[in-house]
Amino acid sequence: MLYIELELQGEVPMHEQIAQQIIAGIASGTIQPGKTLPSARKLALALRVKSQVVNKAYHTLLTEGFLQERYDGRLGVLVPSLAEMPRVTEGYMNRLQKQLQSLAAEGRARGMTEAEFSRACIKIYRSDLTRMGDALE
User: Fold this and answer.
1) Backbone CA torsion sign across 84, 31, 19, 79
2) Is 54 exposed, middle or buried (0-12, 13-18, 19+ CB in 10 A)?
3) I need a labelling partner for 23 at 20 to 30 A (CA). Which of 15, 66, 114, 131 fits?
4) Do residues 77 and 67 touch, judged by C-beta distance below 8 A?
5) Please, what is the end-to-end C-alpha distance for the chain in angstroms?
């Protein structure tokens, strides 16, 4: 089963947390290309959330290219091959820039130096991106 940790009282909506953790699992190699993810219903039961929450996360990941629908006669979504993974786009770069600008402004207001901000970004980029403890079974 896919391990996902949700912050129920957090600021990030649950469907976004699910999507982010699946992307992190793909990036870290915890979730391998070609692996079929649990059905939205099954994952929702495991996470104790409504299936609409997981469906929304899966829809986002399908739209962005991080998941594909199966076309082998079985229902479900799977992780595409590395060659089929989405690439960096202008839209992604714009979104990244906006998020970093906001965080940089807050860091400056808190007295953070440019070097400290850069080190924090590099540390995060180089870290194990996943909080997922188990691979898909």
Assistant:
1) positive
2) buried
3) 114
4) yes
5) 5
Looking at residue 76, what is its pLDDT? Answer: 77
Among 76, 54, 81, residue whose Cα is nearest residue 65: 81
pTM: 0.77
Q: Mind listing the pLDDT tens digit for each residue in 58-95? A: 999 999 999 998 776 666 788 898 889 899 989 899 99
State CA 46 to chain mean position distance: 18
Is a pLDDT exceeding 50 seen at residue 136?
Answer: no
Residue linked to tokens 């089963």: 1
Q: E strands, the chain, where?
A: 68-69, 77-78
- Strand pairing partners for 116? none
C-alpha 75/C-alpha 73 separation (Å) is 7
Residue with tokens 């991106």: 129
Using pLDDT thresholds of 50, 70 and 90, give the confidence band for residue 9.
Answer: confident
Are residues 62 and 107 in contact, defined by beta-carbon separation less than 8 angstroms? Answer: no
Whole-number pLDDT of residue 29: 83
**Cα–Cα distance, 135 to 137 (Å, whole number):** 6
